[in-house]
Amino acid sequence: MSNRTILAGDIGGSHITIGRFVENPGNILLEDFQRKQIDSYATKSMILMEWKSLIQRMVLPGESFLLSLAFPAPFDYNQGICLIQEQGKFKHLYEVNLRDELSELLGIPPSDIKFINDAQAFLLGETVFGQLNGAKRVLGLTLGSGLGSSIKKGQQVIDGELWKSPFRDGIAEDYLGSSWFVDWVKKETGIEVNGVKEIIQSQEIFEKAGSVFNVFADNLAEFILLNYPEIQMEKIILGGNISLSSTHFMNRLQYNLQRNGLYIPVEVSQLGEKSAVCGALTLFLEDNNQVDQNLILKSLYNRT
Fold first, then answer.
1. Distance between CA atoms of 281 and 6, rounded to whole angstroms?
2. Comparing C-alpha atoms, which of 301, 270, 268 is closest to residue 19?
3. How sure is the predictor about 303, in pLDDT bands with cuts at 50, 70 and 90?
4. pLDDT (tens digit, 9 = 90+) per residue, 239-264?
5. Which of 11-20, 23-32, 282-291 has the lowest mean pLDDT?
6. Are residues 157 and 255 in the same domain?
7. Do residues 276 and 247 touch, judged by C-beta distance below 8 A?
8. Same domain, 79 and 101
9. What integer pLDDT is reported at residue 29 of this predicted model?
10. Structural domain tally of the chain?
11. Residues 255 and 291 in one domain
12. 237 and 196, same structural domain?
């Protein structure tokens, strides 16, 4: 096998994260890892140029590379067509064939570009490179600008598509994404915030609006209990930007689950956003079992 450069990335409503992996016979290493903030409300051309600038920074002039990207639903992953329309992000990318657009912008063949659901990539990355401790049935939830869900059954990882499942007066994503935090804080306190991070970083805002995390814990517990009979998960793993604030809602979440008779571990990913990047990486790996996991994990954890 000749050396290959693989750029594996995760695209969310506020960012693009790219890992540069170099594959040699018998091993693969993460050589670079970069994150860039993105305005998902920007025009198509502006978003694509932001993506292009980061991707091109991570390859040598004239270097050939493969590109795999984790992207939120709804999306046609086989064709590379964005179908996001009413999720509060990427509205200018609706029905855009991103495989064709990126192929032209980057000068690489369309066949060298692959896409995967971001929540599926997250749990796939945790399965191959993370610490799932042999659990056979796992629910992965990515909590960010929207709600991503994935389910591990044995060694198979599938997109859970629970973001659009009926929940209370709407769908699950209405109550478990960052926009819910923004709306709740505005309604209950009159304070305008841009997201969860702002609530935590400002002591003044947290003192007035910190109870939002208790309500969120109640929402998340209700959602998990509602889906447990169908999924029968042995473990839940959380990712996404909201999971970074888990110290503010995890105890209440666990209490709510246990008082309803559900005693299963809920953990936050140690790899963080690198999980989705690693899940995207596997699209170009012929056999995940042949990867030297200890070697790649060392390179992952040594990168901040």
1. 7
2. 301
3. low
4. 988 999 999 999 999 999 999 999 99
5. 282-291
6. yes
7. no
8. yes
9. 85
10. 2
11. no
12. yes
pLDDT at 290 over 50: no
Cα separation, 250 vs 238, in Å, equals: 11
Read off the pLDDT of residues 187-239 as tens digits, 9 standing for 90 and up: 999 999 999 999 999 999 999 999 999 999 999 999 999 999 999 999 999 99
Q: Are residues 9 and 108 in the same domain?
A: yes
User: According to the model, what pLDDT value does residue 107 have?
Assistant: 96
**107 and 148 part of one domain:** no
Is 89 among the domain residues?
yes
**Residue 275: inside a domain:** no
301 within domain boundaries: no
Same domain? For 114 and 207 the reply is no
- Whether residues 253 and 292 share a domain: the answer is no
Task: Give me the CATH number covering residue 28.
Answer: 3.30.420.40
Residue type, 301: Y
158 burial type by CB count under 10 A (0-12 exposed, 13-18 middle, 19+ buried)? middle
Residue 299: per-residue pLDDT: 54
- Statement: residue 302 has pLDDT above 70: no
Contact of 129 with 282, CB cutoff 8 Å: no
Higher pLDDT, 62 or 87: 62
The pTM for the full model equals 0.85
For the record, the structure tokens of 57 come out as 């920074």
**Which range marks the domain in which residue 251 is found?**
132-268
Locus of tokens 């502006």: 46
Burial of 294 (0-12, 13-18, 19+ CB in 10 A): exposed
